Amino acid sequence: MVRLSKIYTRTGDGGQTRLVGGQQVPKNSPRIHAYGTVDEFNAVMGLVRTAVETSDTLSAEDRAALEAWIHDVQQSLFNLGSDLATRIEDRWENMPLASASDVSDLEASIDEWNADLKSLNSFVLPGGGWINAHLHHARTVCRRAELQVLMLAESETVGSFVVPYLNRLSDALFVLSRWVAKRSGEREILWKIGDR
């Protein structure tokens, strides 16, 4: 169980922080960049959740389904952050980690939402509604988190399902943005070559 009684420790004042296993590392190390970006991504998902909760364009049923999905994603992102903040050799039994089922659950969601959508013949521009815009913002931060993890993986071992989970989650956010636009009755803005 996590217990936070003292928030500041002053150990970070010199540019250092500690991993879950107690190792002191520079705050600008690849591992800190990786789980810090996952943390930023989770904060952006909070914006998505707030936009969904306050939406007057989605049905109550759609809002409830999206809120449940976002809740699960945010929980998984904390597990992912824990996964990244802990070196492989410092893991413990039953530690929450990104898993194969997390990836397959995302694929099932993508397939379900995509079945309700028309095929695309162009790229989609972010916008069209608040939820859509926040989902695209989340998608791009998710992609950056994936890149940070890949940079970490060049020098250290990371969990087997971290990259697949982030990769699939960015796909899910893209498809969800299209699904939300359709369910909200908002227009989908497509990229037109040479149109400015």
What does this entry look like structurally?
The chain has a single domain (26-84, 97-183), classed as Cobalamin adenosyltransferase-like (Hypothetical Protein Ta1238, Chain: A). Strands 1-2 form a two-stranded antiparallel sheet. The longest helix has 25 residues, at 60-84. It has helices at 30-53, 60-84, 100-114, 130-153, 162-184, and strands spanning 16-18, 24-26. Strand 1 (16-18) and strand 2 (24-26) form a beta hairpin. By secondary structure, the chain is mainly alpha-helical.
Which tags fit this structure?
5 helices, mainly alpha, 196 residues, Hypothetical Protein Ta1238, Chain: A
- What spatial order of strands do you see in the largest sheet? 1-2
- Beta percentage is under 5%
**Distance N terminus to C terminus?**
53 Å
Number of helices: 5
Task: Say which CATH homologous superfamily is assigned.
Answer: Cobalamin adenosyltransferase-like
Tally of structural domains: 1
User: Percentage of helical residues?
Assistant: 55-70%
Which stretches are low in confidence, meaning pLDDT under 50 for 5 or more residues running? none
Shape from CA axes? Answer: elongated
Give the structural class.
mainly alpha
User: How many strand units?
Assistant: 2
Main pleated sheet: 2 strands, antiparallel
What topology does this entry show?
Layout (H helix, E strand, L loop, with lengths): L15 E3 L5 E3 L3 H24 L6 H25 L15 H15 L15 H24 L8 H23 L12
Antiparallel strand pairs: 1-2
Helix pairs in contact: 1-2, 1-4, 3-5, 4-5
